[in-house]
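Entry
Fold in token form

___
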Amino acid sequence: MRHTKEMIISSQRYLDGDIVQAKRAARDYAVTLSPEFEIDGRRMQVVLDGHHSLAAARADGVEPRYKIASVSTCDDVALLESSVDDFMASVWIDSDWYDVATGQDIF
């Protein structure tokens, strides 16, 4: 599935180079995104899984294979129905939130 949104964001900066290389060798470009949500008028999605696969796809110059998580595949998604802030807190990993296309912190 191809994503069509303005911004894909993440809070994971750490990538293990060996894992990225293994993903490249396996041509594993699967990336799981949250459903769309809005903050301050901006539509966005969070990379929930597949940070290393996303890096592999970029290194190989191919489009990642995006999958959209649902409540049945990721419990945290249910939080989007009641509180974007709670959702963001539950899926936070290791850094400030940033736009994965630019690497720029967004909040």
